[in-house]
């Protein structure tokens, strides 16, 4: 008789079968469920009518599902896609600002499927509040977008942040973000959750600071970092900032690879992405699964 897997073995297997945490896992599929429309910050590179660019490529908008619709989408995709291993929530806004929806979706799916991996992306502001609940819901993989560890630099990334009923800007915003991101990451890691950190590189603001961020998150025990280029979006506060070149991006990644493992295969998926990373079915979703709304 086969011994039941230990918690450590389950975690290893889930990570091996997660296409974003393991570049060898390209045969496995993930589904993003777009249940999180609201956001509690305004990143300088974001235009809210599109999906959260901390995770996805700007320029596409996902339509929002209720938790029940999300469960139905998951079940009908799972039926057609036996290689589906991961359910993620990645916007289109900030997952933790839509906590009721997030909790409901994970609870509904867990009742139907005890094994599927739960993954979530966040800007980290509310992580200290929810890290423990994420653990209790069975979330095993979390991506935190953290663009700076220096409050002054972090503050330049946001036009404002809203926290506990108040709005903060500049250094005060940066100080709160950095403190909560670090405290939240610590709690996740203490609870055995694997953490990936996305870093959006903005020329003239944090491009020379990225290795500092990578050193810090390594010391916290994060698993991998994903250094991305900011893509200027028309209408955003940073629309006139020239993006870092591919050459500069690769130099930064190379330098940071000396510190800890780097992700090179992120596809900047939509908040409603479905399929393997290289064969996204979200565009065809209408024909692929039964329509959720009449
Ligand atoms: Fe936009 Fe995402 Fe930043 Fe919110 S966290 S402002 S959705 S990029
Ligand atoms: Fe994975 Fe990147 Fe796509 Fe997220 S955006 S599902 S990390 S490939």
UniProtKB/TrEMBL annotation:
Residues 21-270 form the Radical SAM core domain. This is FeMo cofactor biosynthesis protein NifB. The chain holds residues 466 to 759 of 876 of the full protein. Belongs to the NifD/NifK/NifE/NifN family. Involved in the biosynthesis of the iron-molybdenum cofactor (FeMo-co or M-cluster) found in the dinitrogenase enzyme of the nitrogenase complex in nitrogen-fixing microorganisms. NifB catalyzes the crucial step of radical SAM-dependent carbide insertion that occurs concomitant with the insertion of a 9th sulfur and the rearrangement/coupling of two [4Fe-4S] clusters into a [8Fe-9S-C] cluster, the precursor to the M-cluster.
């Amino acid at each position: 008789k086969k011994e039941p897997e230990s918690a450590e073995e389950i975690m290893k297997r889930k990570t091996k079968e997660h296409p974003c945490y393991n570049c060898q896992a390209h045969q496995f599929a993930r589904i993003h469920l777009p249940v999180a429309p609201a956001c509690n910050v305004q990143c300088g590179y974001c235009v809210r009518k599109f999906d959260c660019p901390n995770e996805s490529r700007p320029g596409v908008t996902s339509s929002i599902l209720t938790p029940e619709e999300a469960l139905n989408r998951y079940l009908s995709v799972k039926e057609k896609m036996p290689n589906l291993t991961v359910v993620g929530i990645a916007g289109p806004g900030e997952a933790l600002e839509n906590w009721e929806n997030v909790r409901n979706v994970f609870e509904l799916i867990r009742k139907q499927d005890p094994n599927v991996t739960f993954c979530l992306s966040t800007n980290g502001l509310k992580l200290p509040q929810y890290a423990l609940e994420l653990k209790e819901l069975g979330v095993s993989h979390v991506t935190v977008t953290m663009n700076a560890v220096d409050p002054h630099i972090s503050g330049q990334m946001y036009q404002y942040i809203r926290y506990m009923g108040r709005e903060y800007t500049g250094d005060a915003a940066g100080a709160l973000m950095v403190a909560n991101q670090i405290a939240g990451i610590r709690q996740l890691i203490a609870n055995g959750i694997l953490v990936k950190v996305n870093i959006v590189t903005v020329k003239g603001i944090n491009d020379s600071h990225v290795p500092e961020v990578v050193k810090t998150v390594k010391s916290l025990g994060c698993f991998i970092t994903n250094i991305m280029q900011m893509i200027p979006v028309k209408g955003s506060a940073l629309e006139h900032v020239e993006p870092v070149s591919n050459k500069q991006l690769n130099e930064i990644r190379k330098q940071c690879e000396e510190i800890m493992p780097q992700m090179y295969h992120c596809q900047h998926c939509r908040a409603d992405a479905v399929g393997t990373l290289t064969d996204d079915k979200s565009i065809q979703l209408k024909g692929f699964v039964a329509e959720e709304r009449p």
